[in-house]
Amino acid sequence: MGEKVVANGFDLADRRLYRRKLRQCLVGLERLLDEKRFDRPRNLMGLEIELNLADSDGLPRMMNEEVLERIASRDFQTELAQFNIEVNIAPHRLSGRVMDRLAEELRIGLGYADRMAREVGAHIVMVGILPTLEAQDLVSANLSRADRYTLLNERILAMRGEDITLDIEGAERLLYTSASIAPEAACTSTQMHLQVTPGRFADVWNAAQVVSGPQVAVGANSPFLFGRELWRETRAPLFLQATDVRPEELVAQGVRPITWFGERWIDSAADLFAENVRYFPSLLPICDEEDPLRVLDDGGVPQLRELTLHNGTVYRWNRPVYQVVDGVPHLRVENRVMPAGPTVADVVANTAFYYGLVRALAEASRPVWHKLPFAAAAANFEASCRDGIGAVLQWPRGRNGALAEIPATDLILDELLPLAAAGLDAWGIEAVDRDHYLGIIEQRCRRRTNGAEWQSAVFHRMRDRGLDRRPALAAMTQRYRELMLDGEPVHSWPLA
Length: 496
Description:
Elements: E1 4-7, E2 10-13, H1 15-35, E3 44-54, H2 64-71, E4 76-78, E5 84-93, H3 98-118, E6 123-125, H4 147-160, E7 164-169, E8 173-178, E9 189-196, H5 198-219, E10 224-225, E11 228-229, H6 235-242, H7 248-252, E12 259-260, H8 269-279, H9 292-297, H10 305-311, E13 315-316, E14 318-325, E15 328-339, H11 344-362, H12 374-387, E16 392-397, E17 402-407, H13 408-427, H14 431-447, H15 451-464, H16 469-486
Parallel strand pairs: 12-13
Antiparallel strand pairs: 1-2, 3-5, 3-6, 3-9, 4-5, 7-8, 9-15, 10-11, 14-15, 16-17
Helix pairs in contact: 1-8, 1-10, 2-3, 3-11, 5-11, 5-12, 11-13, 11-14, 13-14, 15-16
């Protein structure tokens, strides 16, 4: 069976054994797809939001265990660093007034969490990257006290064989070397799940890839890291570099990073899992006792734990998810491109825009990805992360589908918002919810503002008034939190 190594309480299998189990799991998944044994579509959506803990001055608070003990709810969990927690929203059916119900649940849940956090001197801040984070905050000593985080840190560094280098150039440049993966913890995101049938999976994933650029353009909220103003959505380059298992020579050879947009349109969910097995090293080679093929032969449904664990360490911006619930397997597309915040209204607006647009594009008779090269979709994502709402995107135009360069705001206003509205109608979302939340996206485009633009504008105003860089970031973060709690969407926030 091969040797095992115990690390941080985990039995790590011999690499050959683990790769063999991965291949068995992949065969098992393909059999399940062929046999059409997946759950029927139930139009279910799910939401996860990663949150920051800060003190009354806007500085990070390393106390997620104390805060979670006060909250005392299974909906809230630890995240990578001690200033992070995550809230998980129960699945909702996409229909009726679901967007308003979702907003109300989030307001109640986050309000309660903030009250509990205040009892121990912390506050909830829903933002893509906490602007006041400093390099000394993101060190291995501040990782959450869970064996899996320590093990992940050790494995990534062992594969690299060298420290992690952050080199991000935007409005300013950040060059920093880290001895741990802790900088990844700066990235706090909103993750949206959609359960789909195997037959619809490829169209939904392809559509999600297409919309990733416009999503980020209109919703960017992460312009600062370590006191430097970088990309409008700095989470993207930060996550890529902070989790990179490749030493410099492998980067130069074109080896793929584990934080990955992808490189092609797909025809099946199996394409993505097969790429994961083929291209990426096993960060956590932990073997399960299950023989997936024997379980299938006996008429059962395998958990495919090696495949799902490996999939969880390949950080695709749109990730496939396999899960068995009540003995029935299902597939989900997990959209990971959006930052947290700024407000509950903004999060739900981003959610409505995504689910509506993905539905419309996935069901189009002439899918846009038949005209849009995959490389153009990847370039749109990068441009949107770099430039935010000022991004210029490539999009097919005319009968021949020739690519044209279009400002993201024009593309969203003229073409994507009507598609998103049609998609929400197809889900059965009531018009009052559709119009209200897509109206927030519209106003961001018309005013050319989002969370990143507001943060940058207020920071520079405070600098112009004579504040040094760090006090300006702290004051901006305090004002951000006040407006976040007020709940009005970010396009209406005052700059004073």
